[in-house]
Automatic annotation (TrEMBL):
Residues in NXPE C-terminal domain copies: 22-72
Gene name of this polypeptide: Casd1
Any one GO molecular-function label of the UniProt entry: N-acetylneuraminate 9-O-acetyltransferase activity
Residue ranges crossing the lipid bilayer per the database entry: 269-291, 325-343, 355-375, 396-417, 452-468, 474-494, 506-526, 561-579, 600-617, 659-679, 685-709, 730-750
Name listed for the protein in its UniProt record: N-acetylneuraminate (7)9-O-acetyltransferase
Keywords: Acyltransferase, Glycoprotein, Golgi apparatus, Membrane, Transferase, Transmembrane, Transmembrane helix
Protein location: Golgi apparatus membrane
Organism in which the protein naturally occurs: Loxia curvirostra
Amino acid sequence: FKGGDTCEYLLSSGRFLGEKVWQPHSCMMHKYKNSEAKNCLIDKHVVFIGDSRIRQLFYSFIKLINPQVKEEGIKHGNIPFEDKSASIKVDFLWYPEVNGSMRQRIKSWTEGSVAKPHIIVVGAATWSIKIHNGSNEALAQYKINITSIAPLLEKLAISSDVYWVLQDPVYEDMLSESRKMITNEKIDAYNEAAVRILNSSSRNSKAKVKVFSVSKLIAQETIMKSTDGLHLPESSRDTNAMILMNVYCNKIMKPIDGSCCQPQPPLTLIQKIAFCFFTLSIFGYLIISLIHRNNYRKNKSCTDLESGEEKKPAISTPNVSTLEMLLHCFCKLGLIMTYFYLCDRANLFMKENKFYTHSSFFIPIVYILVLGVFYTENTKETKVLNREQTDEWKGWMQLVILIYHISGASTFLPVYMHIRVLVAAYLFQTGYGHFSYFWIKGDFGVYRVCQVLFRLNFLVVVLCIVMDRPYQFYYFVPLVTVWFMIIYATLAVWPQIVQKKANGSCLWHFGLLLKLICLLTCIYFLSYSQGAFEKIFSFWPLSKCFELNGNVYEWWFRWKLDRYVVFHGMLFAFIYLALQKHQMISEGKGDPLFSNRVSNVLLFISIVSFLTYSIWASSCKNKTECNELHPSVSVVQILAFILIRNIPGYVRSVYSSFFAWFGKISLELFICQYHIWLAADTKGILVLIPGYPMFNVLVSTFIFVCVAHEISQITNDLAQIVVPKDNSTLLKRLLCIAGFFSGLHFFSAMQDQSRH
């Protein structure tokens, strides 16, 4: 929006989200763990020079390295700290005034072969005000002293990171009698002098002393909680230390959720090739469009001047060719991918941290629920889980998941557990839908498999190339892809048992149940044998798809979290289709699914089960323990919802067209949110319009939904071209796709080699 260096924003501006969460202006701040802080500062020497306020910052800083440190050092003396495991030295040097002694110490680092500290944090003024009773002469002397020190600090800033900490305001009503002369007016005068003098002689941008002024803003909000009116409360000091860590370490550690002070990543070889491809597609489409437009104008109807009659064109308007349609799709996709890159890879738009409040999650939920109910229409058919109903189900679940992500509700365990059920419900539909298709149609052809795989994976493959992310990063698509292949393999392997064959003999039903039992056994074995699972997915080329950060643990964790629900979906489809075949359920318009008595009993049990699960999920205290139980019990709430939604005839006969519309593009919504609605790979929020949070959400949401809808149409159009029904043509296309992935692997290997 304004451009400039995000480091400057981090050091100078921001606001509080709630009471303790600090949000820098325009960028995201990473919360460093002890191990990360050590890795960043390994073999580094950090020095804090100043008074008791700087000493407080020193202690907060070293607690990021070692939380066990206690503030037991000499109050008015030097305090050393060393972490031998990482060879980190952090020293506090007691110089409460900017005077000759401080100048001599700083000068010693600029002379000869003395090792210079890598980070120097300096600040002092309150002692000068206190000792000299706030006199104007003291301020004049302060200006002289800082003028003599400034060139030395600028010289050090060429090779080290030098920070001058401006003085925080005080809470004057709480100051003791001996400190009453330290007023905010005096502090402002000293700060103004420091800012004006520092860097005044420096023309080299690399030799700049960084002014740490953000602590003033933090103190203005929190100084009232001070115990003596002078020193900041611990939470504020910790925030300052974390800002300092972000300023220095983000460019080294490059955390995903720490966009402050991170340079824009350079384009990779594959990204450059993708850029060239999309550029050529755009130019190619424009050229073909111009040619067709000129042909159309030449053949346009015109009036014969002699007879006064209209002449008919000799040639009709040509149909859109496959090449033109292909280029049109890639042209649109290229423009969309440019927007993706600008949003989440270029430092063009601002990013902010998430901050959860109950209202930020539940108010939008109520709002979309009202909208969904308002758009109620009659269904075309009244079968259980008909197409309109499943689209509606996907739609409202996707909207809830989107609100969950943008509000940062994962920190609230009851909401997290309910969202886990929604993800499980998606996988349940995967098992139900694909089993029903194969069971009823008996179509195990290559065309069907390729169509499904293309529609599931096209967008993710493009994003992996454009955004330089591994396939496993978009974990949900690998999950549904693998489960689709498992369902296909289970039913396609000999003997192929489908409904038409099973109608001839009940034994085939037992054969299918035996297949499902074998599948359940394999799932159970892999879920409790991490070693076997990792061996399977560590083989090339599977390892290229499922590794994240050099191992497949994340993939195993995601797979294990909902390991039984696809099986439950397949089993439900089998039982439902068997009941439907034997006419044991009534699916007429307005009719209850079973007899009134049975329907009422099942409805009562379903409502009780649904509420019981919600009560259990809301009472969860430990995420790990609840995740262990989730795979076995999530099906309870899913089945309860299906029965509540389908047993009453009227409820089964209506659906929300609002939710169903979103359901048709649910996969695109889920994937696109990573980069153009959220930011920093879902860790933060994209800010297109700073300063107006609600308006920003409205604008970014509108663009995000339009883009997802457009990508859905592009995917459908390309699926018809890339995956044709003709087997010989399909085989040629598959060879081309194999060549594409071989080339991608080759360039990826070159890219990795150049990085190393």
